[in-house]
Amino acid sequence: KEYVHEVLTRFMRRAYRRPVSDSDVGNMMAFFDRVRPRTESLEEAVRETLAMVLVSPEFLYLVEPRQVESKREQLSDHELASRLSYFLWCSMPDEELSELADDGTLRQPDVLKEQVQRMIADSRSWQLVANFSDQWLDLSGTNRVAVNPQFYPAFDDHLKEDMRLETQHFFAEILR
Q: Most buried among 39, 48, 60, 171, using CB within 10 Å?
């Protein structure tokens, strides 16, 4: 039970992108207790419990802050870290971002600026470049264009991809 609790706590922390409460883990431990007698092994019961974590709204969605009297609550540091990482990397926060959120220092202007610069410099920021420029400029449209080979004999499908990449690299340069 202690081992399962430890595994769930670590897993849920990463899945939920925030520290998990005893109540969060307790709910999943209760599910594990219900599943364990019906499974052939501990591993199978743990797998079922981890699957339950992965279908929870806390994992699937970035939950919006509550509104109180038509004003939204401020994002917590963990919510800010998640939004930054999903916007700039299309992925969950890394360890450094999570630690700053844990410390409560992510929101400090100098720290936040440094983290945004670090994240943009990281190769994972290409996801923002590719996704944003493709949607904004409809770069997938280059695949829908038929070019007459009689007028442009040197034009081929590789050039279409190069045109798309050139635009993305230009956007990336402006972003950085």
A: 171
